[in-house]
Amino acid sequence: MEGLPAAALEQVAAFFQALSEPTRLQILNVLRQHEHNVGELAQRCGYTSANISRHLALLTAHGLVVRESRGTSVFYRIADDSVYALCDLVCERIARRLDEKAQERALFVQVAARPKAAGATGKPRVVKRRA
């Protein structure tokens, strides 16, 4: 992206925005196996056909899926498999970040699980002063 003009960056942002909705990612996952029509996608994703159609229109507009009419049916398939490489890359990054967080948390769990020193109650110690 280095050196891209603002107009090009807007297109890149719009592409990522198309991928920013969980329903659209679910649609792309279902299409990973093979093409489907709207009714099949709606059934597999658990949404209405109208909702799926709206998402497919956006995915088509951004070139992520291809629409093909066959008689009275319309089928959708992935336009470019490289979108899966991008999604896999993001998933791997999220997994690494979660692993790092888990390792950080483990440090605190180890400290909290240590046996307390003799006389340590976890309560503040009250010191009485002589008058």
What does this structure look like?
With 131 residues, the protein is mainly α. It has 2 domains: 8-80, Arc Repressor Mutant, subunit A (Orthogonal Bundle); 81-112. It contains 5 helices and 3 strands. It has helices spanning 6-18, 22-31, 38-45, 49-61, 82-113, and strands at residues 36-37, 65-70, 73-78. A 3-stranded antiparallel β-sheet has the order 1-3-2. A hairpin with a 2-residue loop joins β2 and β3. α3 (38-45) crosses α4. It is elongated, with a radius of gyration of 26 Å. The relative contact order is 0.09.
Q: How many H/I helical runs?
A: 5
User: What is the arithmetic mean of pLDDT?
Assistant: 90
Topology as a string of helices (H) and strands (E): HHEHHEEH
- Uncertain runs are none
Care to count the β-strands? Answer: 3
Beta-strand content estimate: 5-15%
Rg, please? 26 Å
CATH architecture of the largest domain: Orthogonal Bundle
- Shape, principal axes of CA atoms: elongated
CATH topology of the largest domain: the name is Arc Repressor Mutant, subunit A
Summarize the amount of helix as a percent range. 55-70%
Biggest sheet record: 3 strands, antiparallel
